[in-house]
């Protein structure tokens, strides 16, 4: 994971160009009215897309100018640590993103936690197993494959280093690709009534759209649930007490978040911010509590 001041490898495999952060704080003009923030969005993590676009809308309603940058997780942590990005709302701590946090923690701070996140393996409801431990004896049913997401995702690291070896799944292939590709294969398999096992997490809109279930983890190899945490360049909260205070108040229930994610997913690419704006109007009682 090589950091530069110009750019880093993003999810697409191309170079991720940073427009630059605000230097651990709002960039105020001479009149004191110009307030700019940059936030990272990691493709495929729908709770990140939903929360980040929601806060873009809410902050802009309060006079801030917010830019979003699409990056992978490695580039995101590097960019926030370097001050090229101000905020990232979807750090899974203390477990899934532990390696990134341990590497950059001296240059980062936590601003607030807003819900819990759990890593899971999921199968269609019609698949006749209930536990990860059952997979070993059913290899042929799944073609010897676990369909995963982006290779650099923290969940994939846990799969490779914990779940697969500890449950004796070494003869399974962990398919690396993208979240979008995984979801497309999941949908296709369900349509054909075929068995498939995929890496997923909660909260996620897929559990409301597809007839799927999670597999039990009897040995607890996923570890404890993470807290979805907003992180910032060190010094951000001191430089931006207003924004930091609002983000510390941010809490959202799973059903509300699922509703927002579903609406964004249904609206399609390019409509994330507008969909978040409409959701905020419909759920003003929820959002008002964060600014009390």
From TrEMBL:
It comes from the Bacteria. The keyword Transport applies. Keywords: Cell membrane, Membrane, Transport. Pfam families: OpuAC. Residues 43-279 form the ABC-type glycine betaine transport system substrate-binding domain. It is found in: Cell membrane. Gene3D superfamilies: Glycine betaine-binding periplasmic protein, domain 2, Periplasmic binding protein-like II. Its main location: membrane. CDD domains: PBP2_OpuAC_like. This is ABC-type glycine betaine transport system substrate-binding domain-containing protein. It comes from Kineosporia mesophila.
């Amino acid at each position: 994971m090589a950091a530069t001041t110009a750019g880093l490898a993003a999810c697409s495999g191309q170079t991720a160009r940073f427009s630059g952060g605000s230097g651990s704080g709002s960039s105020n003009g001479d009149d004191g009215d110009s307030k700019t923030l940059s936030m990272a969005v990691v493709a495929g993590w729908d709770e990140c897309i939903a929360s980040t676009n929601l806060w873009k809308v809410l902050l802009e309603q309060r006079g801030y100018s917010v830019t979003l940058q699409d990056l992978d997780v490695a580039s995101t942590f590097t960019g926030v640590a370097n001050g090229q990005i101000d905020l990232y709302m979807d750090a899974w701590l203390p477990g899934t993103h532990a390696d990134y946090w341990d590497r950059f923690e001296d240059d980062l701070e936590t601003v607030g936690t807003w819900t819990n996140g759990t890593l899971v393996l999921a199968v269609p409801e019609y698949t006749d197993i209930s536990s990860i431990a059952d997979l070993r004896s059913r290899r042929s049913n799944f073609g010897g494959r676990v369909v995963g997401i982006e290779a650099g995702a923290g969940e994939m690291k846990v799969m490779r280093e914990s779940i697969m070896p500890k449950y004796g799944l070494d003869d399974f292939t962990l398919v690396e690709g993208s979240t979008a590709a995984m979801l497309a294969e999941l949908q296709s398999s369900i349509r054909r009534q075929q068995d498939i096992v995929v890496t997923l997490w909660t909260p996620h809109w897929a559990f409301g759209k597809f007839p799927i279930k999670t597999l039990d983890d009897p040995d607890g190899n996923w570890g404890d649930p993470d807290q979805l945490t907003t992180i910032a360049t060190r010094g951000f909260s001191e430089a931006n007490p207003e924004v930091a205070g609002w983000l510390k108040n941010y809490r959202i229930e799973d059903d509300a978040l699922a509703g927002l994610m579903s609406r964004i997913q249904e609206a399609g690419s390019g409509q994330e911010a507008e969909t978040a704006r409409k959701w905020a109007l419909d759920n003003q009682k929820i959002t008002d509590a964060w600014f009390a």
